[in-house]
Amino acid sequence: MDVDEVMPAIEESEKLPPAPEAFIPGTHVLGKDEILEPDDSVYIMRHSMNVTWPCLSFDVLRDSLGDERQRYPTTAYLVAGTQADQASKNELSVFKMSSLHRTQKDGDDSDSDEEDDDALDEDAILEFRSVPHHGGVNRVRAQPLPPASPLPPASQPYFTATWTDNGKVHIWDIRPLIESLDVPGYSWDKSRTNKPVFTISSHGRAEGFAMDWASSGNANPSSLRLLTGDVHSKIYLTTTTPSGFNALSQPFVSHTSSVEDLQWSPSEPTVFASCSADCSVQIWDVRSKGRRSVAGIEPAHESDVNVISWNRSTSYLLLSGGDEGGIKVWDLRNVQKKGTTAVPSSVASFKWHTAPITSIEWHPTEDSIFAASGADDQLTLWDLGVEPDDDELGTLMNDTPDGARDVPPQLLFVHQGQKDIKEVHWHPQIPGAVLSTALDGFNIFKTISV
């Protein structure tokens, strides 16, 4: 009698693959053959785009596709300047990012049938139009356009300023480049775009990074003001007149080292803030005699103050990021006028980043949220409105393993995967969307956190 061969019992104790673990910088260290994989379940949209030459700086351009955009796929426009290996190879480029689809989530059946097309995780499309730019671009900023206003017609200018590494600040009209990206067959007038509309030579041969535009608002949107600061501690103001741009010759002088960043006040048209490698933040009024600051925070950080951002919703709040990796929030109502010895204390301070802060920016409409980037390859999103209660605080302290870092409750999100992140901006027309530039190109993403 044949006996069926008895199959060996299935081992029920076979090990399952380890569950994915969140990588916390400062707590975990990547092994030799380990790489970071993004968890797309926490992204609503995430795209990476490579470019020919790295861009130190970029700015988001306003478009006519509407505000408060929630539908996908979406489109974004930005302007950036290159850092090529030879001065003659540099360009100023307008980029159009399209087919920015939702991030596909495996096994996510919650989307309705109507949203199936939106959820296609296709590759984004990156198109660009460029003009030659002699010298590397340290910083680029586009003129502010009034909120909720459409893009100006192609016949009107859309100005963008570039801080070059040879001491010049150029102002360009990039409106025809945008038109060329949107209208097939459109041919732009090179005499209008390929040379600067105006060049600021006030800084001599001193290069710089600090730059910020302001507009007189809806009443007179053509009345623009541009601040530029250089490595020799000087700040210059350029204004517009009916006949064009006018670079004022007298500098603002109170800093004793390189001016790193500038921000116009969102509520007072004559007031601006600056930060410097002299460790201070200064507040200025262009009407004050002597071109000296009227108030200051000295010192604001223990080392160079690299970046600042002025809150557009709560105009007494200012952010600063330092070379030591610290982020501080200042209440400008506590900042004393020059002549007093009291140094104000920051209302919040965070030491999460482990390398210099390279960029910082308040959310355009949520006054407690901001984004920051650091030379530690982290891009972080924060919400000052998050406060742990006493029970949570005790749990957090008790659960932190030995050698691990405490994660501040205000830290909402850590985006990684880019090398040498230089700048981060929110998209003002796509709520929660963040763009960044790094050595390896651009990222655009929106998280479930913001």
Indicate the overall shape: globular
- What is the percentage of strand-forming residues? 35-45%
Largest β-sheet summary: 4 strands, antiparallel
Give the strand line-up of the largest sheet: 1-28-27-26
Q: Quote the average pLDDT.
A: 88
**Number of DSSP helical runs:** 3
Distance between the termini: 72 Å
- Share in helix: under 10%
Structure notes:
The structure is a single chain. About 4% of the residues have low confidence. Helices cover 5% and strands 36% of the residues. The protein is mostly beta strands. The protein is globular. The strands form seven sheets. It has a four-stranded antiparallel sheet, with no helix packed on it. It has a four-stranded antiparallel sheet with strand order 2-3-4-5, with helices on one face. The chain contains three helices and 28 strands.
Features:
single chain; 450 residues; mainly beta; 4-stranded antiparallel sheet; globular
Please specify the SSE layout and strand pairing.
Blueprint: E1 43-49, E2 57-60, E3 74-81, E4 91-100, E5 125-132, E6 137-142, E7 159-164, E8 169-173, H1 175-182, H2 190-193, E9 198-200, E10 208-215, E11 224-230, E12 235-241, E13 244-247, E14 259-264, E15 271-276, E16 281-285, E17 295-297, E18 305-310, E19 317-322, E20 327-331, E21 348-350, E22 357-362, E23 369-374, E24 379-383, H3 390-399, E25 411-415, E26 423-426, E27 433-438, E28 441-447
Brief summary:
This protein is mainly β and 450 residues long. It has helices spanning 175-182, 190-193, 390-399, and strands at residues 43-49, 57-60, 74-81, 91-100, 125-132, 137-142, 159-164, 169-173, 198-200, 208-215, 224-230, 235-241, 244-247, 259-264, 271-276, 281-285, 295-297, 305-310, 317-322, 327-331, 348-350, 357-362, 369-374, 379-383, 411-415, 423-426, 433-438, 441-447. Strand 23 (369-374) and strand 24 (379-383) form a beta hairpin.
